[in-house]
Amino acid sequence: FLQVDTNPVLFVSWFDAVNFCNWLSRIENLTPAYDINEKDVTLAPDADGYRLPTEALWEFASRGGVNTTETNYAGSDNAGEVGWSMDNSSWETHPVGRKKPNSLGLFDMCGNALEWCYDWYAPYSSAEQTDPSGAATGERRVLRGGSFASPSNQMMVYDRSSLPPDHGSCIVGFRVVKP
Fold first, then answer.
1. Rounded to 5 degrees, what are φ and ψ at 142?
2. What's the pTM value of the predicted model, to 2 decimals?
3. Is the backbone of residue 144 left (phi > 0), alpha (psi -120 to 50) or beta?
4. Range 124-130, long-range pairs (CB < 8 A, 24+ positions)
5. Which burial class, exposed, middle or buried, applies to 80 when counting CB atoms under 10 A from its CB (0-12, 13-18, 19+)?
6. Measured between alpha carbons, how far is 93 from 86 in angstroms, rounded to an integer?
7. For 109-141, how does the pLDDT look when each residue is reduced to its tens digit (9 = 90+)?
8. Could you read off the pLDDT of 60-78 as tens digits, one per residue?
9. What's the CA gap between 41 and 44, in Å, rounded?
10. What is the spatial distance between Cα 114 and Cα 90, in angstroms, rounded to a whole number?
11. Alpha-carbon span 44 to 46, nearest angstrom
C-alpha cells in the first residue's frame, strides 16, 4: 500500500520547476518544453511537453477560462471557499482538492502555495493585449496565487509577486500545463 502525499510540493526554485517539466515530458515521451543551458532557459518551439503556465495563462485559468467570472478569487468572492490562507490554514499546506474548484474544475488556484509562472516579473504594459507575453529579461520570475501564509487579500486572481529564479521558499510550489 503506497500513500501519496497530495499536498503541494514546496521549497522549489523556478529552475527546479522547469527541470521537472522537462523530466516529466521525457518520462511520457513528449518533447521537452525547455531548452536549458545552465541558467539560460528558453521555451522550445513546437514542444508538446509539460511547462509552467505563462502569467497570462495562469490568470486566464484562475478566472475560469472562457467562462470567466468576475470574482476576486478563483471561482468565488469568498477566499475561504476556494483556498487556504493564513486565516484558515493553521499555517500549513493542505491536500489539493479540499476546497471548491473554479469553473474549469481547477483547485487551489488561490491559496495553499504560490505558483511559479514562466514569465519574468515586470510592470504590465498599458497597451491592450490578447495573451500577452512577459518581459524578455529580468531579475525575478512571477509568482501567482497566494499561499497558506498569505492574508486572503493577497491571494486574489490579479495579485502577483516574484522571486529570483534560483530561490525556493516554504510557501512556493508550481503547477504544470501541457499544450
1. -75, 140
2. 0.94
3. beta
4. none
5. middle
6. 10
7. 999 999 999 999 999 887 887 777 888 899 999
8. 999 999 877 789 999 999 9
9. 9
10. 17
11. 6
